[in-house]
Amino acid sequence: MTKRVTQQRLAAILAADVAGYTRLMEKDTAGTVAAWKAACENVVQPVIAEFGGRVVKYTGDGFLAEFGSAQDAVNCALKLQQGLADCPLDFRIGINLGDIVDDGQDIHGEGVNVAARLENIAEPGSICISGEIHALVRNRIPVDWRDNGMQQVKHVTHPVQVYSVKPSGAGMPAASGPISTWSGQREKPSIAVLPFDNMSNDPEQDFFADGLTEDILTQLCKFGELFVISRNSMFTYKGKAVRIKEVARDLGVRYVVEGSVRKAGNRVRVTVQLIDGAEDRHLWADRFDRNLEDIFSIQDEITTAIVGVLPGRIEADSQNRLRGRPTENLPAYELLLAGKVLHRRPSQAENQRALDMLDRAITLDPGFAHAMAWRACVLGRAWKLGWVDDPDATVVEIETTLANAIRLDENDADVYRILSAISLIRNQHDQALRHLEKALRINPNYDLLIVQKGELLTWMGQAIEGVEYVRMAMKLNPFHPPRFWGHLGRACFVSRQYEDALSALENIESPDLDELTLLIASHSWLGHESEAARHAGNLMERQPGFSTGDYLDSLHYVNPADRDHHAVGLARAGIPA
Predict the structure, then answer these.
(1) Count of alpha carbons within 13 Å of 559, Cβ hemisphere only?
(2) From CA 287, how far away is CA 262, in angstroms rounded?
(3) Given CB 3.0 to 4.6 Å as the disulfide criterion, which of 4, 394, 413, 464 pairs with 443?
(4) Which pLDDT does position 299 carry in this prediction?
(5) Residue 519 phi/psi, 5° resolution?
(6) What is the pLDDT at residue 526?
């Protein structure tokens, strides 16, 4: 007897059925069957094939299909509903991104179950998609998605974020272009890496291309001789047609890398080119055709080649730092990338799903140090936002995870970044600085490390230097998150630069508790009584039992004078001691 081989992978799953099929069959069996067959032959089968999908099975009144990318699945669904507009049958479609198990005859897993449940709640003629799908296509497919919120669906333990759309939805407005936050050339060679384009329909294509881009960025950042624009800034260009010269000008860089990934069977082709953005001329281009298992060698070759043609060539011994594979297990690598995507969303449920993805990645490859580092990062976010039942036990779990990551790979900057954050929480400032310095030696251009150092120096009473580090992080990441403004605001406030503190904090649309106290104290020290009182009223409305003493006890000032300076600013606005 032949043993059936099973495969596990990430896929975009499309589930569809005919609304009211039983009623239609009772009313007109022959006509309903004929309409169903015509729909399958004339629309369903050719459209799914057009977008590189695979019909897994037909279910009597519906079908299940899988796709290599979220974008292909959604575009296919839109064209299906348009093509079926004149059909007497009304189809409902649900799409989800998930981990599936393929036994050669059918596909299984929660990803399939969620897609089926989304299909069940879709209105006739419409499409429902999960939050995972929406995050990947929202800026790439011009339709108006309706946010249906978190919904509890049958046989799925966690709530599902649901979006819906009709094929006739109006186009989405184009996103505004990036705004340069600094100009001029730097002494260091400056470089930006555009997100690699997906040119294939394989299941890994979205995460694969994004992951290759991220890894090249990470490897380039290890060179202290380079000024590298951060990942957050570059991924704002994903899926957009760009002019290289404009990208270089907007980001203030001399060199731009762009490329594409195409996969076919067990082969992968990566094309990449390095462009002098100032003069809009090609300096170097190459194509890498490899077996899929050689992808990390390809990454090393691309990064080495880019560095080799930059002015003031990097010293030969620096090339050794580019070696090292995060994992040989591609399914584990895909799970890591999916976990990173989920982690960036502001939801407890999605944070838990990110943790689940990383746990599965580590199960597939117990030696995957980078997945362990990100697992600790996801746990840390849950701890910070109060999403854990036992905070003390969670901190122990974070430290254990990080210890295992260090044992496997001593050169992962994220490990030391998180260790530094834990040390700061415990007011072990010197230990926090040692961890952070080690992380910066590994990855000196990582904006999250640089802003974290600015924050730490501020707590340690070196706020003027802290201001410089935060501003440096903002230059590395012109599209930085709002919290960078909060770090700058605190550094300016502690260094008694109140006007600059207000200028920074006023960039935050919805200030949190920390940022509100800095607004109050800065206005107070400047004598802006009405503004200080307005923000103080907002604070007390949000936190009726707020106490300055209890609040400052939760902060990390080393110098008593800095703590007293903050306390006086709040007291002048009438905040209870």
Answers:
(1) 14
(2) 11
(3) 413
(4) 65
(5) -60, -45
(6) 96
Asked whether residue 336 is assigned to any structural domain, the reply reads no
The answer to whether the beta carbons of residues 521 and 570 sit under 8 Å apart is yes
Question: What is the per-residue pLDDT for 452?
Answer: 96
Q: What is the pLDDT of residue 174?
A: 27
> pTM, whole model, 2 decimals?
0.54
* Cα-based distances in Å from 30 to 16, 36, 43, 84, 261: 21, 10, 19, 19, 48
Cα angle value 419/423/424 (rounded, 5°):
120
Name the nearest CA neighbour of 162 among 139, 137, 131, 140: 131
- Residue 401: CB atoms within 10 Å: 24
Check which CATH number belongs to the domain holding 265 and give it: 3.40.50.10610
Return the structure tokens found at 214.
Answer: 């991220």
H or E stretch including 80?
helix 70-83
| Of the residues 102, 131, 165, the one at which a domain ends | 165
Is beta strand 190-193 parallel, antiparallel or unpaired with respect to 54-58? unpaired
Contact 144, 172 (CB under 8 A): yes
- Reported as half-sphere exposure (CB side, CA atoms, 13 A), residue 80 has a value of 37
Domain residue limits at 302: 190-322
Return d(Cα 246, Cα 179) in angstroms, integer: 11
Q: Where among 302, 322, 342 does a domain terminate? A: 322
Q: Residue 209's CB: how many other CB atoms inside 10 A?
A: 25
Residues pairing with 151 in the sheet: 160
Q: Which residue ranges in the chain fall short of pLDDT 50? A: 1-4, 169-187, 308-325
* Same domain? 30 vs 147: yes
- Could you tell me if 213 and 153 lie in one domain? no
pLDDT at 349: 87
Do residue 562 and residue 525 come from a single domain? yes
**Quick check: helix, strand or coil at residue 264?**
strand
Q: Is residue 318 part of a domain?
A: yes
**Inside any domain, residue 59:** yes
Q: Is 43 found in the same domain as 141?
A: yes
